[in-house]
Design a protein that fits this description.
Elements lengths: L4 E2 L7 E7 L11 H16 L3 E6 L2 H17 L6 E5 L7 H4 L2 E5 L2 E8 L2 H4 L4 H12 L8 E7 L6 E2 L4 E5 H4 L10 H12 L3 E5 L17 E5 L2 E5 L9 H13 L9 E5 L21 E3 L2 E6 L5 H11 L4 E6 L1 H4 L9 E5 L6
Parallel strand pairs: 2-3, 3-4, 6-7, 9-10, 12-13, 15-16
Antiparallel strand pairs: 1-5, 2-17, 5-6, 8-9, 11-12, 14-15
Amino acid sequence: MTSKRVLPAEWAPQSAVMLTWPHPGTDWADRLPEVETVFEAIARAVLRFEHLVISCEHVSRLQQLHRDLNRYAEERGLPGRVVTVPAPANDTWARDHGPITVLTDRGAELLDFRFNAWGGKFHWEKDDALNRHLANAGVFGAHPLISLDFVLEGGSIESDGQGTVLTTSECLLTPTRNPSLDRTAIEQQLADNLGADRVLWLNHGYLAGDDTDSHIDTLARFCAPDHICYVACPDTSDEHYRALAAMEEELREFRQRNGEPYRLTALPWPDPVFGDDGERLPATYANFLIINGAVLLPIYGVPQDREAIAVLQDLFPNREIIPIDCRPLVYQHGSLHCVTMQLPAGVVKP
């Protein structure tokens, strides 16, 4: 008999959040102090609510983090919440190289999908091996880490926790990931591995500066099984307007299992954020992280930050909204959700 499988929604109870810490060998080298400030803010916020798993290639920095963050947790009566593991890494995007955990009749299984840096855009070999380092260090306890010959990034899929997966065709169907698989074959992979019996495909959606081929976690997110929030651009002169308007229309056409339309909430559209070379960067409020009792919201030092905080509080009235300045992260074309990966309750037991 086949075991029932489900990819939990992000709001399901968690045991820990995983961070792959930046080091001088990554693309963050020129901005390391300001980027580490962002990571430290994320780490401290997570520690108030659950455990934290940190890996880092530089052992001395990892030891310092272990001391400092454990002290922070202990001062708040939360000892033992920091787990650290030395491990090589090319970069810091834990959402995409971290394990994707499914819940089965036999317990949690951590799926180690292949990671090829969004279709071979950058070096990826260390990142692709990182989950095995964590497993060998005992981070996941007795829960199995299962290696799969299928390229899939956590940022490319959204789950309602009830068998529906939301994704984008721009990402999952790009030939640089799984070139031998068409849409039907990829849906079968999502069914077999994640228990997805419905896949909602967005064929539109775009953010300038995005390296991921339109990851769903920058565009549209489940905030309840019947509710999706999404990025909307009200400025008809903006390069994003047409693609995001088309995405909005697709979302309006989606139906729940009961045939009803989804409740939809448009997120604020931040003023443009540009890199040092004048390139527009993918700043988006959709890249939030839901944790136990809180939502960590990326903000960018623009006037719309205040509105975004208010909108998220309406979406998650029973959770604390914790804004974190993620402007340094978007210089490398990602944001808060991209550098984190949650692990469901029971997986991490320090």
